[in-house]
Design goal:
about 140 residues, alpha+beta, Lipocalin, 8-stranded antiparallel barrel, about 20% helix, signal, NlpE N-terminal domain-containing protein
């Protein structure tokens, strides 16, 4: 009986780890052009369930014209939805100031059963976030 339970737990852990590897990786999005307005977003989902986010903006005539913003925390996946969590004591300091609590993104990829030539870029589409400029942003997997 103990052997059966151990085997089931091992299979469950392998399945959970394999599922998180589907989502983990680097995601990016660049809006604008060099020399004009430029906004870049970079998100890294680590296989251990942590994430790091970086945003760079250079807006001509903006106040401030150039800005760097950072965020970090943990992520969990359920079906194709990824939820982001930040712990105020661990994930915030002078550099990491973005609060990703209650942020949710949908993982979008081509369905493996779709045998057509249609190209679907793998991406995360943010559905909701306390960070107003993150809602409806698509970040593409690289």
């Amino acid at each position: 009986m103990k052997l059966l339970i151990s085997a089931l737990l091992l299979l469950f852990n392998v399945a959970v780890f394999a599922q998180s590897n589907q989502f983990s990786g680097n995601y990016t999005r660049t809006l604008g052009e060099e020399g004009k307005h430029l906004i870049e977003y970079k998100l890294t989902l680590n296989p251990d369930g942590t994430f790091v986010f970086y945003s760079y903006s250079n807006v001509k005539g903006g106040v401030p014209q150039e800005a760097n913003k950072y965020g970090k925390g943990k992520w969990i996946a359920k079906d194709n939805l990824i939820s982001f969590l930040t712990n105020k004591q661990e994930d915030f300091d002078d550099k990491y100031t973005l609060d990703f609590n209650n942020s949710t993104a949908r993982f979008i990829t081509k369905n493996p059963r779709d045998k057509s030539d249609k190209v679907v870029k793998t991406k995360l589409q943010f559905l909701e976030s306390k960070i107003f400029w993150m809602e409806r942003i698509d970040l593409f997997k690289i």
